[in-house]
């Protein structure tokens, strides 16, 4: 842990939206009188019907009910597009940078975005999609992904974007769980010079779905696909014929805008539901203040729209602010490790937002790749998704930021809609590895994990909870409000439980120490160990599996699987490869185990509970600290696991 502090430069602070004094004043106001604070900031949105109630939120057990601006009406797409047309219709809304650097980028103006979204919305209407209907979006990083999301918002349909790296099975689960009437996909997704056959993945998924589900296909590469008449629809062709006018439907503030599936510690991924007004307000406000976005800036978030980061900081936040947002189809290392920096130079990017895993991977390639590019337009650098180690922070600061650009390490979650703890670049002195202080309206507390008591000393560590609601908070788990309450409000009553461990230092700075539940964070992608386990045991040769995370130099955490094979099955290299492939097809490449250890037995308590703490320690190659193993049914299994451990330092 580094305690070096980097203060914002006085020049930066002077022209920033928020300096240190403003932060203190506004933060205090937001906590003392949240209704007034949020009422004022909600004027940033265009309301069709103004609200009279600001906040109505209860974290009380048995009555978890979160509402913001509940009697107001607005339309999210109109806020992201229509209201900008009079003043910035000819300004670029989206810069699309294709996978292949030789293909010209697209500059889509707000007027053009408006036309595309209206046409797309009419195509959805012509398919019988109505307010509240679910639409699954399984697309590459192409402008149509943004058109589709905004088209849903325009007519009041609820989108659920599924990351294009997920397998047909994972896609089918999400289509079925959300009860979607339509899935929108593309023929192929080019990434890093290779193509993924998204349409054939979708075909495979639809074998497990109701045959009423329609498939809208964006012909992107023109690659060959099978075509099922009556089910498959060519979106681009339909858009050409559709009317360019589609009225934005007035929606209630609390109507769901989208569902996004995310991994938890147990069971299948949950459908996190976000609202219309509260979500948009929070995404827009954090985008403006955290990145110190100013009129005319070019903003680039390198995430995929399949994750919440892409929702809030490629599409909704930047467009709500009338910004120019960059959407990148490719990967950081194609054609070579200078691609990010070339794109920054080419499009004169002002704010750049990426994940620590990308920084670590690029750091390993050497600084020449950065230094040959002109990064003089950069003003603010951001990171998200996992704790950033001070080494990577320093490289980002020195090599990319030339020591003069503030870095915002933003801590948040799919569930939170936007940043909860983060520096503000003109206000907050930063410390490498710390997400520093709470954003406006956020009251973090550190609880003792055993007693659940609030730690009131400045220096403290424990589990991180949030004391009261903020507008961007998720509202429920789709179709399962009970699970919402159980997951987030039952371990520590009266608080929102984040699942993260945390330390607060003597200056009141927060340091996220990682998940305290069975969620692992692989290259900034959230993965439930239970999901990988259930994929493994679905293989006929596997009797039992236990999955834990272990420290991985580039990915942050790697996936370590302990596998017990069925009686009569011989573990082999071949089976190992087969299982890796199996998990890729069951969930997707991001879930492939990095290490598989054959385990004749797993350490269990006498009541049959797997002792994950022990498995974690062995995976970390830290078996000296196994702690008490006396409650194990058969302590000798541990010796075998240690002896054959895979991650030796
Ligand atoms: C982790 C991504 C440390 C954390 C927006 C959280 C972080 C989980 C940071 C949410 C950060 C995210 N520092 N850890 N700056 N940002 N995390 O839902 O464990 O994909 O609970 O949302 O990522 O992951 P999710």
From TrEMBL:
UniProt-annotated binding residues for Mg(2+): 537, 539, 542
Domain Acetyl-coenzyme A synthetase N-terminal: 23-80
Post-translation changes: Acetylated. Deacetylation by the SIR2-homolog deacetylase activates the enzyme.
PROSITE patterns, sorted: AMP_BINDING
Cofactor requirements of the protein: Mg(2+)
Protein's UniProt keywords contain Metal-binding: yes
Residues holding CoA: 191-194, 309, 523, 584
Reaction catalysis annotation: acetate + ATP + CoA = acetyl-CoA + AMP + diphosphate
GO MF: acetate-CoA ligase activity
Protein name: Acetyl-coenzyme A synthetase
Protein's gene: acs
